[in-house]
Amino acid sequence: MAALKYSRQRESIKQYLATTYDHPTADMVYLHVKEEFPSISLGTVYRNLNLLADMGEAIKIATPNGGDRFDGRTNPHNHFLCTKCGKVIDLDMEDISHINETAAKNFDGIIESHSIIFYGTCADCIEKS
Amino acid sequence: MAALKYSRQRESIKQYLATTYDHPTADMVYLHVKEEFPSISLGTVYRNLNLLADMGEAIKIATPNGGDRFDGRTNPHNHFLCTKCGKVIDLDMEDISHINETAAKNFDGIIESHSIIFYGTCADCIEKS
DNA sequence: ATCAATAACGATAACAGTTACTATAATCAA
DNA sequence: TTGATTATAGTAACTGTTATCGTTATTGAT
Question: Which of A102, A115, A123 faces B93 most closely, judged by CB atoms?
C-alpha cells in the first residue's frame, strides 16, 4: 500500500513542473529546486519525478541522446525536439491516436499506446541560421 | 575524409543484423559476434553499430528503459515493443508519414522526421496469460 | 501535545549503457 | 614490402539513473 506522505520538496518540484514550459531534465529540476532547498539531493528529485509520473501527475518524455524530460502538463499532446538546440516544444496538433488502430490491423498482439517525438529545426534556430 | 577500411568484425556485425529479426541490443550483438571472434571488444561493437547507423545501413531504435536496439532492415517501417517481455517486432502497417504535415500545421519550425514506438502485449505474451 | 510507525530525506555508492583513450594489429595504396 | 592510416582489444571514464542507509519529517492514534 505505502501511503503517500506530504513533502515540501515534492510540492516544490510539482510547482515548478506546473509553471514551466521548458520540459526540464531531472538535473534542470534539481538546479531549480535547489534554490529553495539548497540541501536537496538529486536522488530526491529523481524519486519524486518518477513518483509523479507513476501517479499520472507528470509525463516522462524519453529522448535519444541525453536525459529524459519531464512535463507537468498531462493532457494528451505531442512533442517536438529541435535537433539543433535540443529544446522540447509542445505541439498544438490534432489528435492522431487513430494510428493505434492502423498499427493493430495486421498485428496479432494488442496495441495499447504509442510514443512519438517529432524532430526538426525550431523557429529560433531557423532565424539564427 | 577518413576513408573507411574493411574489417572482418564489422562485416560479421552487418551480417548478423541482416539475418536476424530480433532487433538486438549492442550487448546481444556482442555476445553473438563473440562466437566468431572470441576476442572482440564491446567497444568495437558499439563503434561499428553507430558507424552503420550513421551510414544508413542500420537503424538505431531508442527505447525507454534498457539499451537501444538495432535493426538491419532500413526500409521505412514502425516498431512495436512488448511491455511484458521486451520483444521488439516490425509492424506491417500502412504508411503514416502524413502525420509530419499534421504536426507542422500550427508550428513555426520545420518538422523533418519523427520516431514512433507502439506499446502493448505481443501475441506470445497474450497466450501465456 | 506526545508518541510510535513509517514515509521521505540527504549523502553516497552502485549500476547500466555508452564513449574515450591508447598501444598494437590489420588494411590498403604505392 | 613498405609506410600511412584505420580498426582493434582492453580498459578507464563518463552520463544518467537507481539503490542503500542512517537520519529527519509527517501523520494518525493516544
Answer: A102
